[in-house]
Amino acid sequence: MRERFWELPLEQLTPGEWEALCDGCGRCCLNKLEFEDTGELAFTRVACKLLDGHSCRCGSYANRHDYVPECVVLTPKKLKEIDWWLPRTCAYRLRSEGKPLYDWHYLISGDPESVHRAGISVRGWTVSEAVLPEEDWEDYIIEDLS
């Protein structure tokens, strides 16, 4: 990978660089609720059934669509359409907005554990959708996901 590739426009990244931009927080794997009456979007503590709650990575990334067909394939083009549901701390969202990565991002810190130490990841506080009925998800809304 190129030196400081994350500072390049997203469209110029190689597939490997694009994948490496992920900070490993797991927040994009949290289920969201959209309220039809207001259009408001709320994040929940309910995670995709494939999310590993400790590593904050997909347990079957290469084959995720076999298990979760609606899982979004994030691309620079798609990012412009759906960035509103990515957390404000997301490296993809930050870079699409022309903002720098946070100091805790492993590409800056050199340590993949720094996202967890900074309290940004979902490590240890999610509930799998596999064990929780969808009608109960409202009880798991996160008020602030800053």
From TrEMBL:
Highest taxon of the lineage: Bacteria
Xref: InterPro entries: Puta_zinc/iron-chelating_dom, UCP006173
Parts of the chain that traverse the membrane: none
Pfam families noted in UniProt: CxxCxxCC (PF03692)
PANTHER family in the record: UPF0260 PROTEIN YCGN
Family per similarity comment: Belongs to the UPF0260 family.
Designated name of the protein: UPF0260 protein D3P04_10290
Species classification: Bacteria, Pseudomonadati, Pseudomonadota, Alphaproteobacteria, Rhodobacterales
